Amino acid sequence: MQCKFCRGDIPEGAKVCPTCGTPVENAAQENSASNQPEAENNSYNYQYSNGQQPNNGQNYNQGYNQGYNQGYNQGYNQGYNQGYNPGYNNGNMPGEKPISGTPYMIFSILCTLLCCLPLGIVGIVYAAKINSLQKIGDYAGAKEAAKKAKLFTIIGAVGGLIISIIYLALYVFAGDATSDIVDDIPAIVEDIEEPDDADEAKEEASKAVPSGELGAAWNTYTVQINDKVITLPCEMKDLEAIGFQLDTGDKSAEYMVNPDEYELAFFNDQYGHSIMFDMINETDAALKIVDCKVGGIYIDEYDVEDGNLSVIFPGNVQIGSAKDEVLAAYGEASDVYEGDTLHSYTWYADDDYFKNCRIELDAETQKVSCMSLQCYDLY
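^ thats the sequence. predicted structure below, dont judge the formating
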């Protein structure tokens, strides 16, 4: 006997089909049904041979229904049992294997710790969704989450590797460059501390040439600015004649100076050089600053550092002059101060505080860095 579903042989006395598990009763019906066409065929031949008209419509419908139902039931049940049930029992869609989220989670965590933190975290988020989506039957969503977890983990790992290579290359290059700079430092320091003959010659050549009108002693109170010589005290118009104008941003032209007092004021030339002067009022009434006399001048190394402005004191003392040159020109100072960074020498005329010359030298180089000269009577 054959099973009506799988057409497998059923042993005698069996209650179910050993191939597909269909009960034997159904298989028996199949055999009964399968023998019926033969009987009907014999009946048909008998009727036909005896001159009787066979009932073709009845036989056709009966065969059609039997064949259609048998094929439908066999195909549907077999597909249902072999496709749906295994998938249902496994908790997945038919024919799909379950996805484990553990490997995706492990690789995402490693990517976060070792390679790229932002992309690794995104991978962890998607990896955590895989199992939860499968539990609610969303297998397509689980597959998509696994795909994205894998994608972000790979991108993070590759990106982290590229960044590491770039960082290593920069570290090696920067290390070589730093090493070269460190190796050159002693030579640079030596050049700074011990200028060669060419540097000394250049420094000497940069000094301005004194005019014949410039006095030899400091108490001649003569000052050469560029190629013009003024004698303190002088008028404001004398400064204007050599190209210096009152800096009204510091003091306006209407600024008042009290009697027997002085005010510091800056004067600028057309090139942006700035020199500070004492504007003195020796009268017994207040005066506008533009009406006061010029009684003192202050100059330091920053005022003349660009080389386009020169200021020379009596005896050819100027910024950059050596200590020996200053003492040779002015003699022994009235007051001396020697600090760690600055040495100061001051000369007074008959102990008059407002008639003096002060020269400041850099303690290390022993060269002039700042100069001032005053000549006026107050109080």
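The longest helix spans residues 139-193.
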